[in-house]
Specification:
Chains A, B: Its EC number is 3.2.1.52. Chains A, B: This is Beta-hexosaminidase. Chains A, B: One of its GO terms (biological process) is glycosaminoglycan metabolic process. The structure is a homodimer of 553-residue chains. Chain A is built from 20 helices and 16 strands. With 553 residues, chain A is of the alpha/beta class. The longest helix of chain A has 18 residues. Chain A is elongated, with a radius of gyration of 24 Å. The interface between A and B is large, with 73 and 73 residues.
């Protein structure tokens, strides 16, 4: 991979192909080529094309017509006009499976589990007008290749063209987990927002949607058998995700190569459950909140020492996890407030009667909630405190989300856990937006400063790790906590910024922000054209003149 | 005003009326009242109703039906259901001019000049079902009162109601200038974005649109007689504001009580003019840019010592200013880079042949550009450097925009200039969004941190000023520089945050962020319903529970 990365470092200095993430191996020529007006995408040697794959082909075909991405140069490609007009035409792209491939649907591959997926593909676009060919071992691989194919082209006065044929790509991800996390509890996001986000994720080959579905503020997911929680705990009867919504989101995601890893955060971040189940929540909405909740109001945590609450939680997690085909399920475990339990008479009584410390009770509680997942063949995922701060015997297969600081990665790896990068110091999308607590004139963001795309992009996933520890890194993600977000600003906060980690964890580290920026501008313009409100990263003057607005230009 | 402010400090602690900005005098009762299904707004004693005022009535009538703002309480008003159902109905609002008023159009009043406008109004909404009455001396006053009337109501299952009749308001602005600045050069905003922003501004009684129309990066305004500048200097032929667009924007604004103060920034911030007039620009796109431009690339400034360039600029300003009825016109004058002129042979030659220093040449240049404005009966507006850093003899009537720091206000006032607050330390909307220059992994915003609404709201407009100097304060504004903005994030960056200065400069200083927050939540929800993508300032849990998420709650 290092050799290939070096290889690309040179190639990527040529006028940008609008590809994101950077393929592992990309060679380009200098021959103009344009799409025929009758261009089509066909399958070869496949008896029964999975319907989700053929839907993806339809979408790609449409994008080729509607993207209309102009070259980001001052003349928007006009000086290439005669070269484009006289270029040979490409009339088709042919999709083939490699010999011996077992053809299943894209959706089933997307959810079949980390490390078992084959996303590799190979793409040839000849310069001579012969058909382009995309091959892969799986429908998922073909889907990734289709995504790349859709990024090879610019538009000039209605002609879809490249100046860089022939193009050859062989590609596969550096890491199996590339994610995006959305918090739908602090503020609610309609299903259409989530679907649009899934589309955007798929365009940059992100393959995991970490859905932080519920929290202390609201519980929008309608969990079968636990309907009362959302009935009393959603912001309104309209601000919910019904089982049908969940199914819709899961299948929409899977058809785009994305696995939905849901999170029911426990035992903290559960205040709102007190609305339907006051018996299970310690210190609900206790004030002053800062004494009972680590980060923000309202206070309230599951009574982890109560056998009844433990059973309730395990059953809730069992029911919630059965709504999702994913092998991954997060039980959270962050920011447990000790004082809340110290001041809760029932918890103190439960601990005394069982002769347990709070940490021992947390261990029992966690064993109970994780065993329902393990019994169902699923892998528990937790926030870093569960591995680093508490005395909990986690199953070896548990996956740890490192969020407080990327400097904690080594400690998690030293304990032998697989991990996902989610460091607030690199990957939090909500940082830098000012303080949101009331009555606070000079309040600032809890994780200042704003985390730029460059910051995420420059992250080294294996810093301070041994070679063996480095194998524990599954990948990473950018995250949007929604205290100051909702439908109105989801897109502009997330895009194109969240594409930074998509390339980092697909292409591998070491990318150069200098050569990445022009391609990321392309991503932003393409996203806008496709209905995702990505922001302008720079003045358009800069976007049209790669390098001219570099700090040292 | 102090007495009235105190008065409101108590009243505003009662369940919030969703009024923004806070009226100077507001009394409310505790009687429920709902709008009749046949509710109408009528005029009394007016022979010929100005068409822009009757259009405003139509818009208000529609908003009363479509706002559907639910009370921001956990039950969204449901507990008031029986009170609302049995409430008396209000069937009409009657608009009247005070005796002796001269009736002219809202639009003509909006543009007639600072300090000559009468925006005062008086509004009575009785509790007994009798008609509500709105009176004013001008169409502009009636328009402001209509805006307030539209904010008195919540929705419960289709019924538009208040729980606080009778309501009496007498109101007038504390400051004549409440503004919003938008930069349309770094990135282009379509006319529809500008119109939507004008609507939003009018909803919070902002009365000046400071249009930073052009800059070094692009020149989108098509100025009659100078069409070549935008032809070569707009980002594309589609990314322009034609004279018809300008006329449309100006009349749209005026019909909403807003005066458009355009800015053609000179002599700096003009690089792009070199595309059509290389003879007038020193150091165009010179590199390294940081040596030739103060803040960002591209470098390039008008050759201020050249008589030909001076004439060209004066004629350009004359032509541009004649597109706008406003009495205000900004010639900018910020961030002049001396090195650019030092290294420009022609400027050095011009200075030598005229025996002038650069500052003397700047004075001559400014006299020329300002005299065309003064001759046309307009008032020049400049950024603070022109008053504080340069040896320029500004006309006494010149208005100064204080931007570098609000600590510079006193110095401007000491020089006797009227001033507008635009301090980057309180009012810049773009701060805190990370560094945007390329090749810069740890780059940060040039004006970190993010400026929250609380920060702007808490500003004291007359700090460190004598009583006489305080009279020089015309008002203030929040500003959006568009290096990292465009259509995708205009609304969420600006709203509801830019409403903070709207209330500060309408209601006067001393407002309490604690009581303002619930009303600002109402503003945000109402804006979203009206199609402006205002953001969630807090988790919805907090929005529904005033005070519960205060830092000290």
């Amino acid at each position: 991979m290092n050799f290939l990365s070096l290889f690309c470092a040179f190639l990527c200095l040529t006028p940008a192909l609008a590809i994101w993430p950077r393929p592992q191996n990309l060679t380009t020529g200098s021959t103009p080529l344009r799409l025929s007006s009758t261009f089509s995408i066909n399958f070869s040697g496949i008896n029964q094309v999975p319907s989700d794959l053929s839907d993806a082909v339809t979408r790609t075909t449409n994008f080729l017509k509607t993207d209309k991405l102009q070259a980001l140069t001052p003349d928007r490609g006009a000086s290439s006009s005669s070269a484009v007009d006289s270029a040979r035409t490409l009339s088709s792209l042919t999709l083939k499976f490699n010999p011996g491939a077992t053809v299943t649907s894209l959706s089933s591959e997307a959810t079949q589990g980390l490390g078992t997926q084959d996303e590799s593909y190979s793409l040839q676009v000849p310069a001579n007008g012969g058909s382009a060919v995309l091959t892969a071992n799986t429908a998922l691989g073909l889907f990734r290749g289709l995504t790349t194919f859709g990024q090879l082209w610019y538009d000039l006065d209605g002609t879809t063209y490249t100046l860089q044929a022939p193009i050859q790509v062989t590609d596969a991800p550096a890491y199996p987990y590339r994610g995006f996390m959305l918090d739908t509890s602090r503020n609610y996001f309609p299903v259409t927002d989530i679907k649009r986000t899934l589309d955007a994720m798929s365009w940059v080959k992100i393959n995991h949607f970490h859905w932080h579905a519920v929290d202390s503020q609201s519980f929008p997911v309608v969990v079968p058998g636990f309907e009362e929680i959302s009935q009393k705990g959603a912001y309104s009867s309209a601000q919910v995700y019904t089982p049908a919504d969940v199914k819709d989101i899961v299948s929409y995601a899977a058809a785009r190569g994305i696995d939905v890893m849901v999170e029911i955060d426990t035992p903290g971040h559960t205040s709102i459950i007190s609305q339907s189940h006051p018996e299970h929540i310690a210190c609900p909405e206790a004030t002053p909140w800062a004494q009972f909740a680590n980060a923000e109001p309202p206070a309230g945590q599951l009574r982890l020492a109560s056998p009844a609450t433990t059973t309730f939680t395990a059953n809730l997690i069992k029911a919630a996890s059965s709504m999702f085909p994913s092998k991954l399920f997060s039980t959270g475990g962050d920011e447990i407030n000790e004082n809340c339990y110290t001041k809760d008479p029932q918890t103190q009584q439960d601990l005394a009667s069982q002769g347990k410390t709070l940490e021992q009770a947390l261990d029992t509680f966690t064993q109970a909630t994780h065993s329902v997942l393990l019994d169902a063949g699923k892998t528990p995922v937790v926030w870093e405190e569960m591995a680093l701060e508490h005395q909990v015997q986690l199953n070896n297969e548990t996956i740890v989300l490192v969020w407080i600081s990327s400097e904690h990665v080594a400690a998690v790896a030293q304990k032998g856990f697989r991990l996902i990068h989610a460091g607030s110091d690199f990957f939090y999308l909500d940082c830098g937006a000012g303080g949101w607590l009331g009555a606070n004139i000079n309040g600032d963001s809890s994780c200042n400063p704003f985390k730029t795309w460059q910051k995420a992009y420059s992250f080294n996933p294996t810093a301070n790790l041994t070679d063996d520890q480095a194998k524990l890194v599954l990948g990473g993600q950018q995250l949007l906590w929604a205290e100051q977000s909702g439908s109105s600003n989801l897109d502009p906060i997330a895009w194109p910024r969240a594409a930074a980690s998509a390339e980092l964890f697909w292409s591998g580290p070491g990318g150069d922000v200098r050569t990445a920026l022009p391609r990321l501008h392309d991503v932003a313009y393409r996203f806008v054209q496709r209905g995702v409100k990505a922001i302008a990263l720079q003045p358009q003057w800069c976007a049209l003149r790669p390098g001219a607005c570099d700090v040292d230009a």
